[in-house]
Write a structure and sequence with these properties.
Layout lengths: L5 E11 L8 H7 E4 L1 H7 L8 H13 L3 E13 L4 H18 L4 E5 L12 H13 L5 E5 L7 H6 L2 E4 L8 H16 L5 E6 L15 H11 L5 E7 L13 E6 L3 H17 L9 E2 H13 L6 E4 L15 H9 L4 E7 L1 H10 L4 E6 L11 E11 L2 E3 L10 E3 L3 E6 L2 E6 L9 H4 L10 E4 L5 H4 L9 E5 L34
Parallel strand pairs: 1-3, 1-4, 4-5, 5-6, 10-20, 11-19, 11-20, 12-18, 12-19
Antiparallel strand pairs: 2-3, 7-9, 8-9, 13-14, 14-17, 15-16, 17-18
Helix pairs in contact: 2-3, 3-7, 4-5, 10-11
The structure holds zinc ion.
Length: 508
Amino acid sequence: MTQGPRIAILGLHLESNRFAPVVGRDDFEAKLVLEGRDIVDDARSTHPRQPAAGTGFVRDMDEAGAWQPVPLVIADCGAAGPIDHDYLLELVARMRAGLEAAMPLDGVYFAQHGAAVSTRISDPDGLMYAMAREVVGADVPIVSVLDLHANVSDAMVEHADVLVAYRTNPHVDQYERGAECARVMRELLAGVRPQVGFIRLPLVAPQVTQLTATGPYADIIRYGQSRMDERVMNISILGGFTYGDTPENGMAFLVTTRGDAQLARDLVRELAARTWADRGRFVPRLTSLDECVRRAVETGDDPSRPALLIADVADNPGGGGRGNTTWLLEGLHAAGARGVALGVFNDASLAAEAHALGVGATFRARFNRDETDQYSKPFEAEARVLALGDGQIIGRSPGSRAGMAVDLGPTAALEVGTVKVVVISKRTQCIDPGYLESFGVDVGTARTTVVKSRGHFRAGFSVYFTPEQIIECDAPGLTSPNLANFEWTGFRRPIYPLDPDTTWTPPL
Ligand SMILES: [Zn+2]
């Protein structure tokens, strides 16, 4: 006989780059759509496939005692473009039907990302919470985890009881935050009434300024945590996802207290004001493409120099980039920069051709023969097939995929002049050295490593590189931190740093 609270589990995991191609059913199903029992079975498995905040919630609830999970739908497309609105409505309808059929429920847990946009609306996440609230009523707790890149809307705050955001970037605390949501859920079930203070600043912090090891974002998160005490349930500070280009963009501050509304208001105002005073530090410092190539040549020629890591931050699949821009590849190849490892390059046709040719074959590699996106510029060069693989790897520790099963699709390591390139078939960012080394491309001995990632690589690659060895390249791409490169239409203006004279006064 099962006992304990009945908790629905559902979620949409999508970070939408409004400038990237639209995604729908096929894209989600190719990545991950879990329904019903599979959600809980996956969370309890050795190498779960779902985002770790779902796993953390389920396992913490399991450890705490009897409960009745009511798993409904988790749809995950990672970082991509806007979701097709009809498919969004279909997912919401499936979630609604599941919730209605499961009533009476004691609680609802959203394993959510929080930065989705659809082809018609800017706030699918708020729409989902509102739907859940409508079904379960005012008294059933709704708790949601959020990526710290979520763009928090008024509707999200209104319809959920407690929002808990990651506090690390790279995100190495997803599991812990999921577990924290389970603890919050149990407090709410025990009768604690949360009070939430919420402020959104007119500040779009370019993604590269949102690291949590050092820098302005690290400082405010650390300060926020120093203000935790027994009255405060959670402090979440969300950098937001710039490329969503929505009216909900802007750094968001959430302070949730155990029933103390005044404290929630005072503390959230203090945190927001502190960040606003510090806003000048949220302006990125990038290295030009030419300078990156020059540094790589120098590093290749002089073994006494420390190895170099170039982050191709403008082509980050973790932010909706296609993982296939060729500016760095072409530049490093043309310059003959020695000892370069580059990855992971998303080109399924090229990987398939290499598989057909076999290890040791030489051929004319044509990068980007299929894609027509403005940044997917073709590039051709003589290449040799160094290694082939099926792309099934386990994420390494440290790293934000540690222990998780990762599917890169058919994969080929190619030698293109002085550059070794790992070509994959399933678009994803390069999270840890295993993404290259599993295919024979040794990061430890490379003179220069190029990763298609904005910042999540920093945990995994810390085994080889100190922050001083890492530079961020100002190449073109869908995720360029150079905000002047885009035509923004969704932001509420004025917004800093696009509008340098933006003002903000703390609410009373
Ligand atoms: Zn994120």
